[in-house]
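Let us work through a complete example step by step.
Step 1: write down the sequence.
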Amino acid sequence: MTETKSIKKWYVVRSVSGQENKIKEYLESEITRLNLSDYIEQILVPTEKVIQVRNGKKVQKERVFFPGYIMVQASLVGEIPHIIKGINGVIGFLGEVKGGEPVPLRQAEVNRMLGKVDELSVKDDNINIPFIIGETIKVVDGPFNGFNGTVEKINEEKRKLEVMVKIFGRKTPLELSYMQVEKV
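Step 2: predict the structure and record it as C-alpha cells.
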C-alpha cells in the first residue's frame, strides 16, 4: 500500500439535485465493482429529519440538507476523480477551476459538516417531553381522531401518553404516542 492511498480528504461532489441518494448508491456500487475501497472511504448525503402532516397524519421524512451536494472522503489519485465524475448524475467537484484540481474541504468545514450530520441524527431523539400531566390535548390520529383529552401519565421511554378522553359522557383511558396528539 502506497502512502498516498492512506491520506483521504473530504471533497464535495456536485450532483443532480434530488438524485443524491441514487448517485451515492451508484458510487458505492462502482467502488465495490472496481475494488476501490482503499481509495474512497465514505460517501455522505447529509439529511435532516422533518415532520410533515399528510392527510391529518404526522409523517417523518428525511430531507437532503444540502441539495445537489454529496460529501466524499477519498484519496483522489490516478483515475479516481475521473471515475467519480463519470458516474451518472455527477456534475463535478466543488471548488475546482475548470479543468483544475478538486479542492478538499478544510478540517474546520469537515468538523462542522460531520457535527451537523451527527447533530441532525440525534436531534429527533432528544426532544424533551412536549406534554405535561393535566394538559388538554387533541387526538389527531387513530380511531379517536378529533377527541380532546387530558394527559394522565407520560411514558418517556416509549414516547407514549395515557390520555383520559370523554366518550359518550364517560372518561376512557387511551394510550397514544406523542405523534398521535397535539396541544389544544
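Step 3: interpret the result. The chain has a mean pLDDT of 82.
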